[in-house]
């Protein structure tokens, strides 16, 4: 591993309700970034952050666990926190050690008690929050449903960055709203491999709706951006990302 300046390190606490997929996500991020050579699973007891015999035996997190992903010259330390309320003190301690929170929400369960608790803890600390919707491959998964749930129960100050292509058994990729490109996961390969394509027709109307929402929210952060947007000018990707921060 290379040496990093502190300005190239991010500490992110991965929080959320019990069994929402935090440990699985942390393992996948470390694997896909190349920081870990093995794609671990809860079932096999091989994840990076549920390593104690008790955690492997029970199949859920009990302590804080740390893994990392090296991505675009940045080292992202991922602090995996337990979701069960019995261990909420550890989860809050994980937030205290982090610069921001990644809140995992299951696409079938939506916002749960643990999601609300940890979201409000993060906001109270003035941490930036990124939501990740997990379980999109499960039956009855609904991205639109969870997005609305977040708006109603947590905050209206949220914008989508990526939307899924297909849901449930049909889930097979994502569209990035900034790049306007689709990533279609390759079948039969290890996690993370994909083909980059144009936006598929089946998600076009959903893309248009979410893109409009994203750009309007971004334009509203700055008078000159708003003026340009209202005059019909396309806001370039770099400016949109800067405004989103
Ligand atoms: N189908 C499907 N299963 C998933 C996904 N993510 C996680 N799981 C499964 O859901 C269960 C819970 O996943 P974990 O990663 O342990 O969830 P967690 O949020 O870390 O749970 P706690 O540590 O107890 O809070 C495990 O059986 C995982 O294999 C997903 O995206 N799709
Ligand atoms: Mg866990």
What does this protein look like?
There is one protein chain. By secondary structure, the chain is an alpha/beta fold. The chain contains eight helices and nine strands. The chain has helices spanning 22-33, 53-58, 88-96, 113-124, 143-153, 204-219, 223-230, 237-244, and strands spanning 9-16, 65-71, 74-80, 100-106, 129-134, 162-165, 173-176, 181-185, 194-197. The strands form two sheets. A five-stranded mixed sheet has the order 2-3-1-4-5, with helices on both faces. Strands 6-7-8-9 form a four-stranded antiparallel sheet, with helices on one face. Strand 7 and strand 8 (181-185) form a beta hairpin. The mean pLDDT is 94. Bound molecules: guanosine-5'-triphosphate (GTP) and magnesium ion. The site of magnesium ion (MG) has 6 residues, from helix 1.
How would you summarize what this structure contains?
The protein has eight helices and nine strands. The protein is an alpha/beta fold and 245 residues long. A hairpin with an 8-residue loop joins β8 (181-185) and β9.
Shape descriptor: globular
User: Major β-sheet, in short?
Assistant: 5 strands, mixed
Oligomeric state: single chain
- The structure class reads alpha/beta
What fraction of the residues are assigned to beta strands by DSSP? 15-25%
Instruction: Evaluate the radius of gyration.
Output: 18 Å
**Span from first to last CA?**
29 Å
Total of helices: 8
- Note the run of SSEs as H and E: EHHEEHEHEHEEEEHHH
Can you tell me the residue ranges where pLDDT is under 50 for at least 5 consecutive residues? none
* Beta strands, count: 9
């Amino acid at each position: 591993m290379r040496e990093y300046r502190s300005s190239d390190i991010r500490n992110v606490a991965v929080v959320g309700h019990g069994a929402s997929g935090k440990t699985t996500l942390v393992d996948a991020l470390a694997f896909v970034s190349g920081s870990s050579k093995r794609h671990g699973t809860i079932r096999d007891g091989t994840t990076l952050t549920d390593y104690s015999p008790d955690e492997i035996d029970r199949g859920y997190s009990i302590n804080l666990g740390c893994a990392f992903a090296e991505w675009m010259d940045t080292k992202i330390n991922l602090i995996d926190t337990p979701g069960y309320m019995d261990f909420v003190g550890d989860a809050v301690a994980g937030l205290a050690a982090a610069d921001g929170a990644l809140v995992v929400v299951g696409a079938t369960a939506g916002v749960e008690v643990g999601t609300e608790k940890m979201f409000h803890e993060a906001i109270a600390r003035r941490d930036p929050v990124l939501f990740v919707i997990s379980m999109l491959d499960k039956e009855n998964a609904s991205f639109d449903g969870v997005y609305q749930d977040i708006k109603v129960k947590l905050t209206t100050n949220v914008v989508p960055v990526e939307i899924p292509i297909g849901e449930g058994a049909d889930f097979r990729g994502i569209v990035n709203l900034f790049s306007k490109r689709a990533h279609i996961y390759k079948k039969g390969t290890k996690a993370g491999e994909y083909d980059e394509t144009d936006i598929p027709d089946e998600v076009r109307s959903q893309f248009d709706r979410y893109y409009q929402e994203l750009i309007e929210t971004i334009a509203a952060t700055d008078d000159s951006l708003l003026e340009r947007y209202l005059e019909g000018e396309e806001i370039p990707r770099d400016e949109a990302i800067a405004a989103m921060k």
